[in-house]
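Ticket #4471: complex job returned nothing on first submit. Input attached below:
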Amino acid sequence: MGIVERIKEIEAEMARTQKNKATEYHLGQLKAKIAKLRTQLLEPPKGSSGAGEGFEVTKFGHGRVALIGFPSVGKSTLLTMLTGTHSEAASYEFTTLTCIPGIIHYNDTKIQLLDLPGIIEGASEGKGRGRQVIAVSKSADIVLMVLDASKSEGHRQILTKELEAVGLRLNKKPPQIYFKKKKTGGISFNSTLKLTHVDEKLCYQILHEYKIHNAEVLFREDATVDDLIDVIEGNRKYMKCVYVYNKIDVVGIDDVDRLARQPNSVVISCNMKLNLDRLLAKMWEEMGLVRVYTKPQGQQPDFTDPVVLSTDRGGCTVEDFCNHIHRSLVKDVKYVLVWGTSARHYPQHCGLSQMLEDEDVVQIVKKKEKDDGGGRGRFKSHTNAPDRISDRVKKAPLKT
Ligand SMILES: Nc1nc2c(ncn2[C@@H]2O[C@H](COP(=O)(O)OP(=O)(O)OP(=O)(O)O)[C@@H](O)[C@H]2O)c(=O)[nH]1
Ligand SMILES: [K+]
Ligand SMILES: [Mg+2]
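Support reply: We reran it on our side without changes. The output follows.
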């Protein structure tokens, strides 16, 4: 029997089993069995380099966004609209057969947008090009799930299930469970609060299923057995997702209104160029990129060329910023001057651990160098303060 058939069989058994206190251990075990099989399913076949084979596209720009959706929802039309790169669009399904990259220029940054073939129910089990599409999606920073506003609202759930089956977790935080395998000592099970979904016995059983007999487990939230399995598997990818309802030109205003009110959703029409700016703004917001402008001593910063940092990738401290410019820079830094929303006064003298925020301006003062920040105090000598930021800064609340 193949892996997919075994998963189906266990799913059928789960559906047959009544959910109650007496069966919860058995159901937990079945869930772990399915999770293990799904992980096996994701392992690339022997002799190939990876599940994304044939779809690799070189990373480019400050971030990567993947378009995921059923066939013919308008993914390629959207890529063409947002990037100017032509991707074939047509009224028949599976027009796109490979991964097509384009570049969005937004807020002085370059974002790589990936058009992908449509995926269908069963993609996680290898139907269509599902597995390649999903492998590429995992390499992105965020996902835009493109949906047809005129089609069933169930599509969003079906797609989410497919993505969950391959370890993607959309708009979720990693479970607050500390888990560490040990060589000896048995299993130590603890929690910092009262648990209502998982008890010690269930936890032991799940670990047993994974043949783990020595480990430390600490629940820091009232997590579920699914969360525990995610933590043990350790291969989950937590990603932001924006739900993009396209083709609102063909549905009634009430439907548009309802879809627009759903969390993390944007309604658009490629054909009528409706709301695309709102989509870009939402995408930008979810990516959480932080633009930092470098101000050379005695000069204005180059506002067209920010250093782009991200909390998800590498962090946003002054030290991360310095490392971005040059690996050996940190050891020469005496302090930095910061103008912008992260500063308590302008400019603020900061050390390496200061967290930077979007649109901050930073001047690095090296050891044995003098700053030109015009001394301390908000309005004192701003002749050398950066032009564009000083306006923003006057409006921005000062941090206390
Ligand atoms: N009414 C309407 N039709 C649209 C809109 N956007 C795209 N379409 C049409 O939808 C059809 C499918 O568009 P594609 O861009 O090829 O869709 P896709 O998701 O890339 O499709 P596959 O590559 O086959 O998965 C085309 O006929 C488009 O013209 C829209 O905003 N409104
Ligand atoms: K199509
Ligand atoms: Mg397409």
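Confidence is low (pLDDT under 50) at residues 374-383. Closing as resolved unless it happens again.
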